[in-house]
Amino acid sequence: MGTAASSSTSVLTVEIVSHFLTRGIVSVSVNEVEALRELFNKLSSSIIDDGLIHKEELQLALLESSGGDNLFMNRVFDLFDEKQNGVIEFEEFIHVLSIFHPAASLEQKIDFAFRLYDLRQTGYIEREETFADADADMDGRINKEEWKNFVIQRPQLLKNMTLPNLSEVTTAFPSFIFNTGVEDSFHQHNVDVPRRR
Hints:
Elements: H1 4-23, H2 30-44, H3 55-63, H4 71-80, H5 90-99, H6 106-117, H7 128-134, H8 144-153, H9 169-172, H10 175-179, H11 182-188
Helix pairs in contact: 1-11, 4-6, 6-8
Subunit structure: Homodimer. Interacts with CIPK.
Organism: Cynara cardunculus var. scolymus
Function: Acts as a calcium sensor. CBL proteins interact with CIPK serine-threonine protein kinases. Binding of a CBL protein to the regulatory NAF domain of a CIPK protein lead to the activation of the kinase in a calcium-dependent manner.
């Protein structure tokens, strides 16, 4: 029998995984969500211990420095912060990381990369460095279809959009493989749990 805290965590994990499975976002396992929860907890307490990831904490995790203003980091944070409330909650964290999962579709990766480079959120990439090659209709802007064609011809642009180890995150946090009661909770809630092969 688990404690009340572990029971509520199990129910939350069931809800999160069920949400991702029903929306067809990506097929994540319970152990992957639990391992990402542990990673989230470590990141969210690295500077401010409040259960939320602040911009400085994400910058510390990705750039190993929490100081200074970084345009790229600001944009990445904005994409993680889907609710635009200045912090990253666990559901936002897992949703964005699912895009980097090996099982995520090419379309999801293309869309995320497009949104990353669409700095002013106009629906177009307007950076001069990419115009010559990507702006097929020569209108001075790159729309999503032009971007898609551009990155399909240059797969190296999306190379960093897959984190191969993300599907193996449970090995980094092995305590979840043996100590989680979540899978049992899934069966109590009649949720199909994808089995790892």
